[in-house]
Amino acid sequence: MGVDAKTDMKGVELTEAAARRIVKILSDKPEKSALRVSVEGGGCSGFSYKFDLVSERNADDVAIERDGATVYIDDLSLVYMGGSVIDFVDDLIGQSFQIRNPNAVASCGCGTSFSI
Fold this sequence. Notes:
This protein is an alpha+beta fold and about 120 residues long. It is built from 3 helices and 9 strands.
């Protein structure tokens, strides 16, 4: 894998629907400024995504911005999430943020747990 391909895999995309939902959520929380997405050990499949509303950016955070929405992802989580797309889905099952992660080889029905 060349340097360019590896660099491209680091990117995480935020969909328009996810950006709209983040802006809406934060409009009710003036003390918060961004959504933090992180990867933690555990969950049904080995790793799980964690979502938090935050007011500050950490030194190791990468900021992803779109349409007035900001998402922070720390460097370690980015290793597991490189190339992912963060989306917001509103369907018959319910509303949720979903992450389409090309690095995940398995995931579970809850939609927040995966393995690499």
